[in-house]
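lol ok so funny story. i was supposed to be doing the assay writeup but got distracted and ended up predicting the structure for this chain instead. priorities right. anyway since i did it might as well share w the group, maybe its usefull for someone
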Amino acid sequence: MKKVFISVLAGLMISAQLLAVSVKDVCGQFNGDLNIGGKAYPNRAVYLLPGTVDNSVTFVLPDFIYNAGKLGNIVLPNIPMSESGQLTLNKATLYLDSISERATITIVNDLKDGDVVYNSIVTATEAQVVLQIAAQSLKEDIYVLFQGKAADQANYALVNGGFEGDWVESEPQGWHSFNSATGGYVDYIRNDYQFIQSDMVRPGSKGVHSALLSSTMALGIAANGNCTNGQINAGSKTPDDPERNYNFSDPANEGFNTPFNGRPDSVVFWAKYLPADRDYTKDDNQARLNVVITTNARYQDPEKDNNFADVRIGAATLNYSATSDFSWQRLTVPFNYETANLDKEPAYILTTFTTNKTPGGGTSYTDTTGGIFNKVKVNVLDTVYLDDVELIYNKSLQQFSLDGEALSFDRHIATVEDDYCDDCAKFAAVGNGVSSQTFIGFDADQRCIFIYVIADDYAQSRAYNLYRVDFADSDIKNPEPIDNPDEAIDNVSVQTVRFEKVMVNGQLLLRSGNVIYNLMGVRLQ
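and the output, tada:
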């Protein structure tokens, strides 16, 4: 056999003599190099998803490119996997986007290339897959070798959103307040009661703690309760001085920044807000959340004169009032992404909770308790309990169509009257999330189509959505519904989706995966 791969990629070899692995072990994202007919394509990503058949995986190679032509996604559903992690697929028929006819793909084992033999085998840490692709429009079969390692755990979630664990010097893991603040005014506002751990948790919580944030009095001035996953700079006794009073994130400020790689759709949190005067109708009595995703640069909240417009990728901001009975409430805040920064990569996330939307605002007052001979003056302050802060990544289908006509799903299953895959190019899928990616797999054995929807947080949420289209000539009768497969998947991450500018019918638009926006950031498709 002629030499089909270049030797530089032969460094990663996986022995077939391995301990038993399961689908749970091997599924995730692998980053590595592609070799296509002797040409290297570095830094590519491959996904392995749990199959819908026992002891099987689904192989996804996004954006397959050959001879400068984009041929589309390679999706091979339900590949049998042995206990040693060896993959076997004798032949699969697949429609590639830019080829007018179907391609035939085989997963190859025991492929000899000179003195080296390649197997298609995966483990929890490494993946090696050999594909043979044949199509009428191709002059000869293409051999594709992927060799990669499980992606390092990237950052797509907030650290310790439940405020659990031990608090060190009145601060939980991942969060900071005035006790670790910097700035010339900090000695006047440090205390051990403004940010404390509480045993009062939100309804239905699986945790045992929340955070209690309170305003405080310093030199006769009300200071908002303030906690952040960055660091507080307290440089002035004037509360609304953005030059000296702010929260900030700085890549050089290790321990007081939160590395982050995702593009979430919203942030959800629980709050129990108690303004000091217990007037939930007053507009001034509003607490605040502000979450800002930034580039690899310094950022501060509040900003001054919009000096950080080129750093701010997206933000989720909410001023919220107490409920009428001062109970817990679950609040959802959407992220708005900056149109001018859509092509920039997220690097950090700065989250700020305060007891009032206005610096130095709130309704603190002094009260007197005790009897005639032991009167005590106390400060009544704004307080807010916080629990279970979570970033949400949408991962459902917004639209799935056949030849431009939308298909509706009943319990994640749709049926069409056509025979199996007469013209697969007519199928199109769009996810409903900023970072959602859709992959369509054509399964000739089950005579159906699978649509996989994943988002940036696949590594940490361990969840995706799976939809199926059955055809009139399908051999499967009364299929079981497929809802949110939730295989436990460890030590993987998902490729960050890049935004790119595209021309559609002469109009300049923005695209993230399959999602199209206009230049104002309004979603069009």
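The longest strand covers residues 39-50. The helical segments are 23-26, 458-461.
back to the writeup now i swear
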